[in-house]
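User: Fold this; tokens only.

Assistant: Input:
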Amino acid sequence: MKIYKFGGSSIASATKISNVAGIIQKESSRTPLIVVVSAIWKVTDMLAEIAVLAGKGDAAYREKLEGIAALHSGIVRELFRDAVSAEEPWLQELLAELKDVLHGVFLLRELSDKSLALVLSYGERLSCMIVSRYLHVSGTPAECVDARSLIVTDENHCYAKVDRLATGKRIRERFSVFDSLPVVTGFIASAPDGSVTNLGRGGSDFTATILGAALHAEEVWIWTDVDGFYSADPKRVTDAQVIPEISYVEALELSHAGAKVLHPLAVQPVMKAGIPLRIKNSFNPDSPGTRIGNESGTQEGRPGTVTGLTSINHVVLLSLSGSGMAGVPGTASRLFTCLARHSINIIFISQASSEQSISVAIMPAQAMMAKKVLEEEFVREIDERRIDPVSVRRNLAMVAVVGNKMSGHPGVSAQLFETLGKNGINVIAVAQGANEMNISLVIESGDEDKALNCIHESFFLSMRKVHVFIAGTGTIAKSLISQIRQHRLTLQNEMDLDVVVCGLANTRVIVIDGEGDRKDMDYWYDTIHEMHERSPLDGRASINEYIGLIKEANMHNTIVVDCTASMQVAEKYPELLQANISVATANKLGMAGDWALYRRIIEAQRSSNAKFLYETNVGAGLPIISTLNDLKNSGDRILCIEGVLSGTLSFIFNELRRGGRFSEIVRKAKDAGYTEPDPRDDLSGADFARKLLILGRELGYKLDYADVECQSLVPESCRGEMTPAEFLDRLPTIDDWYAAEMESAASEGMTIAYTGELKEGNAKVGLKRVPVDSPVAGLNGTENLVVFTTDRYLRTPLVVKGPGAGGEVTAGGVFADILRIASYLV
């Protein structure tokens, strides 16, 4: 025979009860069944609320009671239709009993546990009658069996302890023979004096396994609204997977640590009897579900060391500490005995090896009581200052990582703490049993979802995700979105990496996808083309809102990508890094900003686990900063850095050497998109100077922008207030000077170029004559060139050369930084 238990969500409406009846009828035609039912969905919560109102003398309970009556009456009318008149009397009789009980509570203004247990029992009694009578009229003879006549408990009415011997005897006597299909009330039982008790919230699972163990059933099936035991809560971890098979002990650990699919005590009876337990979905009965037995199965495609993870999202951590605890026998015994005496349940224990502190996690409702009784227990030690007053830390969550294959498997803890650390999740307390099957962590409750997702991804998925938020919607951002869109599938197939764009923002629009992967890259590709063409994110309100939304999303493996030229975005880098959010930026105003901002960024990076990469700040897509750091970190001494670090100015002087006129070349560069909207921003040399400043700081020099000697190419006559168009109209006035300078240089076998040099802490940029056969004179288009002269590269300097401007090239450099950060995170 089998035991089938149906939860409240499975019988929440007439349609669902009809579906359940179909499942029962199909199985009962070939296998003897006993069915256990919970109260209809939410009814137990509603009854508890009504009972509390009545106990306070609040007449509002009557209106809510009418809601319960209407719910059940509506289901009965829809189920029985023509025969509804025959069903009304028993329904009205039960509802009238409930009304009388609540009226008594209301008159006494007192709600005892005994009265509460009685009120709560009506949920299962009503649902059991409805299901059994519907089965009966549908052609399957069935009878309602009240579990109060079967299950004997102690007198702890709201969380009773079962008398296994007496209960087993009653169950075997009652079901030695049965003709009609028994439908048993879950959750409820009775004390020796006959008063109603219950088995705790969700206790219908326990009822089913008690019946299964007593009757030596073939299997016990728990029917619910999910496909089985998941590797994590699917409502919080979208990639959670159904676990086909797990062991009793794993199921026990997971349910005790917060997995709501199964009552924590339900495993014990079937585990002792060796009876398999199966979790099934009543809305998807063809799904195989999860089988719980002696051994866990091996699921193909997952590492196998960790079976699942779960969490309890609101716990309080109580800590007893003090030097007077060290080496004093009996301290822990007194603590646990004191809490047990006051029925305070402990869900987590951690003790320092120095014996100077013990921490326990309990549910919030019991926190103040626990603090009070512990301080009373240790009042003498506290008064003598040998033990500190009990500390209470709230707003915490407990996460448990469970798997019987963790035992003896090196590296599980390292992998767990590494992924938490890289995502900036602080572990407040840790507990691990000697069987190595469960590692439990206490963390801030705000980090719970983030922790579950990053741990799950680390242990269960070969495909890892990084969540990217982009600031700015101009040329670089557009190119970056296009490149991610084009190469995402390749990254998934070859690197098991998924780059997921989760947000875009400019001055006018902020688009956030809080779930991170609902929208594909085509969505973001279309969105960025609809947003403002060249709108830097420079409104302070917009920045604060966007950064606030990113931090609020609190997603694992988050990278913020700055594609703006905004100082206000750059000023947010320290805040992001301190929140353990990595940054990849094409905006050089952070690393080339004032010294105070630069130091804040560096210090924030060093104090966090986040990465900060800015390769494109100097050479667009060229590996200049990484080359410099490789040389420096490997012990080479850099003597001089020189070359051309402006793609715009490189283009202008490359064209000038071909015989063009200066003003016409500048206009051509602007039309091609090589310059800023105002070409004076390029011709001033400020952008070049900032790049040299960044390199100087990388070498350890304390430099500010004012320390860089910078020659501006903007004529004095063009430096006043005027539009870019007016500037370009005035620029031809200096064409003759450039023509004469080029001719003079040529007569000496030279040409002119705009170059920079960093040597011995001194930085300068400006016009310079160079030989016509020099590498600088051989540049084409927007090419950049950097020459490193070092102790190792003294006779033949190291040269880095390539395109130094353009949205595609810069976006490619940013994309490379994203991938470097991703390789660190995952």
